[in-house]
User: Which sequence fits this backbone?
């Protein structure tokens, strides 16, 4: 139980009113591989739980953080296996190629015509009309991202170091954009850290812009926000929160990776602000983005 004291301390920093207890123990086992017995034992020692009609219920973000502590589940595999493997590719060539797909199903009743709008790296917005039966795999493209980026100047490195105390942590929905909470608790997500870098950069006279798009490590890309620091007119994509997390987990070589090293080879910019990458009849729809590396490493102009 001593191994979990640190996690329980961090969970205690989250206000009780921010939590939504809507995940059952059976769902926790199915999604994160955490047994009801483990949850029951941890709840006796302070892991947050609520009861409805005698059934234990949990906050989803607490379960994600617990799964990382237990080193199990798909999120843990993504962060500690797939992401480091993709970052290792950045040392192999000046550009990294990806095959990127867009997959979304018709969320309706199977009647009428589906009007999908996709935000793509190569063609901007793409409008597609499909029957409900023909939804699913909607689009595929090849993109090539530069993996070699200029080093940050000393002032920009100091800016990156200013967020070094913040730790990657899954937060309840109510706190996911609460930058003040992140500053005071030292628990943060990439969206919040990018906002902090933007504000702190403005104070220090360092040009910083926000970026929204896809984090590309195979087998699936995910939507993501990061910051880009202007160096001699070139925006350099950075994400120190992700790098620091992987350094803490000992899945990156600290001799080759510093928080200020660019992740531009795995960051595909689509927009300056968070937007729906896929919509169905003008409404956001859940989508997946299957990705694989391309064998050939030379390609057209980067989508970054």
Assistant:
């Amino acid at each position: 139980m001593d191994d979990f004291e640190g996690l329980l301390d961090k969970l205690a920093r989250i206000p009780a009113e921010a939590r939504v207890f809507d995940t059952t123990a059976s769902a926790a086992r199915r999604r994160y591989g955490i047994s009801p017995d483990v949850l029951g034992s941890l709840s006796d020692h302070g892991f947050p739980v609520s009861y409805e009609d005698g059934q234990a219920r949990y906050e989803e973000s607490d379960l994600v953080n617990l799964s990382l502590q237990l080193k199990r589940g798909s999120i843990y595999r993504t962060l500690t296996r797939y992401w480091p493997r993709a970052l290792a590719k950045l040392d192999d060539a000046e550009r990294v190629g990806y095959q990127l797909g867009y997959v979304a199903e018709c969320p309706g009743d199977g009647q009428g015509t589906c009007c999908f709008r996709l935000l793509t790296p190569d063609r901007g917005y793409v409008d597609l009309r499909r029957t409900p039966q023909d939804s699913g795999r909607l689009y595929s493209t090849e993109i090539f991202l530069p993996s070699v980026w200029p080093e940050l100047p000393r002032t920009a490195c100091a800016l990156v170091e200013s967020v070094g105390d913040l730790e990657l942590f899954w937060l309840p929905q109510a706190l996911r954009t609460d930058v003040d909470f992140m500053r005071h608790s030292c628990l943060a997500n990439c969206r919040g850290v990018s906002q902090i870098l933007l504000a702190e950069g403005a104070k220090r006279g360092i040009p910083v812009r926000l970026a929204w798009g896809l984090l590309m490590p195979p087998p699936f890309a995910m939507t993501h926000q990061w910051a880009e620091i202007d160096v001699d007119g070139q925006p350099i994509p950075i994400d120190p929160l992700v790098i620091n997390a992987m350094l803490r987990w000992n899945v990156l070589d600290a001799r080759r990776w510093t928080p200020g090293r660019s992740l531009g080879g795995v960051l595909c910019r689509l927009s300056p602000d968070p937007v729906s990458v896929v919509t169905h009849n003008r409404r956001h729809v859940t989508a997946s983005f299957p990705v694989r590396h391309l064998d050939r490493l030379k390609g057209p102009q980067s989508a970054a």
About this structure: The chain has two domains: 2-72, 74-304. Residues 115 and 129 are 5 Å apart (CA to CA).
